[in-house]
Amino acid sequence: KNELPAGMQAFVFNMRRPIFQDRRVRMALNYAFDFEWANKQFAYGSYERTKSYFDNSELAAKGLPGADELKILEPYHGKIPDDIFTKPFALPVTDGSGDLRDNLHKASDLLREAGWVLKDGKLVDANGKPFTFEIIAAEPMFERWILPYIRNLERLGIHADYRTVDISQYQNRLDNFDFDVTITVYGQSLSPGNEQYDYWSSKMADTKGSRNLIGVHDPVVDDLVDKLIHASSREDLVTATHALDRVLLWSYYVIPQWHIGSYRIAYWDKFGMPKLAPKYGLDNVVGWWMDAAKAAKLENAQKRGR
Description:
five-stranded mixed beta sheet, two-stranded antiparallel sheet, 12 helices, 11 strands
């Protein structure tokens, strides 16, 4: 295990597209993604669901905002979702069986509230225009995760296409914000700073080639990024990061995917290891030692195997 920020790997909505500008729609599309089933089918249950833009670290917002965080967030009452103050953020979950009927019912309710109606098996707006979009990626490996999601969307009356494009075309389309939904990773460090401006600021939303792929254009987020960048202490930095994380999460700009909060290593079971491991590094070989009893046990097992 480690405590390194996992960042946010996710399906990213391009908010420049009108169909994604309603938060209820983005929330509904989250309900159609069955992570638990896909994780079991495609990854032997090895992944953890990402629940924060700074997951697997002290920078991740958890539970309800504390007193210091409330000092930052209270002035934005009415400009950010009210749920921020009353509910811990939680993503939709399933039992992993592949039956997500309850989640799809919730998604349907949200879409109906947002003005979408089911007509002849297709979800349409007030003008009769169908709900359609395209998901693009540069890695074919994502296909097995995306196609089941597309089938779930079909049950809601939504038509989504998936396209794998070559890397040069993919980069060009991202640089020009020429996509509906894509998959990307917002990498994070233990000391977030100026990169958050490139990720989330309003100015970067209008700057081609920036990392603000979502098109976040929110004065509240701009303020929170400034507070994070100009934090005068580690304590203030962590608090400001929690506040930013919470506002981004409750805005449902993305459908979070997954991460691994540990190192994957293989080793002979003949080493002694310290009981206390470093938080952020992998203390292998240097901090390990040959354990004579374990080595003998392993040698005997090998002989019996022969």
